[in-house]
From TrEMBL:
Residues 6-129, 138-270 form the EamA domain. Belongs to the EamA transporter family. This is EamA family transporter. The chain crosses the membrane at residues 7-25, 31-50, 62-79, 85-103, 115-131, 137-156, 168-185, 197-216, 228-247, 253-271. One of its GO terms (cellular component) is membrane. The keyword Transmembrane applies. Pfam families: EamA (PF00892). Keywords: Membrane, Transmembrane, Transmembrane helix. It comes from the Bacteria.
Length: 281
């Protein structure tokens, strides 16, 4: 299989697994910090035997990746709890816009056709934040900040590190657990979890942030962070659909319009052009 196609397939598989997050977070009867800690602990324990401790070398890039990852995981669960799943995921998936602006600041050559899709994404953000029903303005703004953090994660995942991908996933989740234990120990409460709740946490830990990030790492390195952020549009499509089907949560009309505008802007970026790829890396 061609390198690019293989990379796209990896990212698609990761997005399908990622998209189950909104559903299980809504279904598990526990607060955001408990869910975040629980799934990270499970993922960390699974990959613990594979961590190459002797090869760990701290760098600015890896530290940025770890903390951006922790922010994304914590904030996604919080925003999914306090706003609609559709708003939480589509605002997080504005990562292509922030990566575009970052490349622009760095002085990368960007073709003019790249401006229009980003304008649609920006317009969609305004529409969602202006929508009065369905969501929560604080939750929406928090989800928007998660889009920036998600862009940081994708950007630094593209780098090569001296440790294996399984080591990265294990360490990231262990650090996430330690941060929650230090900053929010009193927020953890597993006492009310049912068997279904524990089953949901196990699924989230093993597949939704465990296997998914392992596959995503492989994909990003094959097609670049920018292209991976575009393929990631599959997640904001599947996530709210699963929540609507199994939970019955319907976003407001304004949110749906903003969702459609952002999605249209992201889709525009994958339309082939004779002018080239848009960003020369």
């Amino acid at each position: 299989m061609e390198k690019t196609n293989k990379g796209i397939l990896y990212v698609v598989i990761a997005m399908v697994l990622f998209s189950t997050g909104g559903l299980f977070i809504k279904l598990i009867d526990a607060n955001a910090y408990t869910i975040t800690f629980g799934r990270a602990l499970i993922a960390g324990l699974i990959f613990l035997p594979f961590i190459q401790w002797q090869k760990i070398k701290l760098s600015k890039a890896y530290v940025a990746l770890v903390f951006a990852y922790c922010y994304v995981c914590i904030v996604f669960v919080i925003t999914t709890k306090i706003t609609t799943a559709a708003n939480a995921i589509i605002l997080q998936c504005t990562a292509p816009l922030w990566l575009y602006l970052f490349y622009l600041i760095k002085g990368k050559k960007i073709k003019s056709r790249e401006f229009i899709p980003r304008a649609f994404i920006f317009l969609g953000i305004i529409v969602i934040l202006s929508a009065s029903g369905g969501g929560n303005i604080f939750g929406d703004l928090l989800a928007l900040s998660n889009g920036i953090a998600y862009a940081v994660v994708q950007y630094f995942m593209e780098r090569d590190y001296p440790i294996s991908d399984r080591s990265i996933i294990g360490i990231n989740n262990i650090v996430l657990c330690l941060l929650i234990l230090v900053l929010m120990p009193n927020s953890l409460d597993f006492s009310g979890l049912s068997i279904q709740g524990w089953s949901g946490l196990i699924f989230l830990g093993v597949f939704q942030i465990g296997v998914s990030y392992l596959v995503f790492l492989k994909g990003v390195r094959l097609i670049s962070a920018f292209k991976a952020s575009i393929v990631s549009l599959l997640e904001p499509v599947l996530n709210p659909i699963l929540v609507f089907v199994f939970v019955g949560e319907m976003p407001s009309v304004g949110s749906l319009i903003g969702f459609a505008v952002i999605l249209f802007g992201i889709i525009l970026t994958v339309i082939p052009s004779k002018l080239g790829e848009g960003i020369e890396e």
